[in-house]
Design goal:
Layout lengths: L6 H10 L11 H16 L6 E2 L11 E2 L2 E2 L2 E2 L7 H16 L7 E2 L7 E4 L2 E4 L13 E2 L3 H7 L16
Antiparallel strand pairs: 1-2, 3-4, 5-8, 6-7
Helix pairs in contact: 2-3, 3-4
Length: about 160
Amino acid sequence: MAGYGTDQGLTDWLATNGFTLPGGAPTLAVLRERGSGYVDAVYGWRFCGYPTGGIDQDRAWPRTGMEVFGQALGDTVIPNAIVNASYRAAWLEASIPGWTSTTVDPSRRIKRQKVEGIEREFFGPETIEFRAGNFARIDGEIEGLLAAFLCDGRSFPTVLVV
């Protein structure tokens, strides 16, 4: 399974954005794989359309039945935004090892913090509706890049029969 984009594309993206990889970072191919895996795992089920190669397709892209801003995308297209989101996730993984595989457990959030006479209290999971389980880390730039490709969920069936 290959990550989205190319090693040269990741190198160019890093340079364009003024980023460098820290010493000891995994290879570009490994980082692309991790970044692409993150995009697919966290967002893949929310992408509109269907994998062109069916359920056995390794990656979420390319997709069939995909339309963005009223324009149909070809069945072999992997949009630049998808590739760039995977590059961003790859860079985050290199900069913060484990970023793409770390989850946030809402039950382990700080409830109250006191420092030098200043005290803050936060809302806990018991006051906020959470889905069961842990949540993946989310990056605002990746969210923005992928927003146009995500379905709003209304087309997702309420009941799945297996």
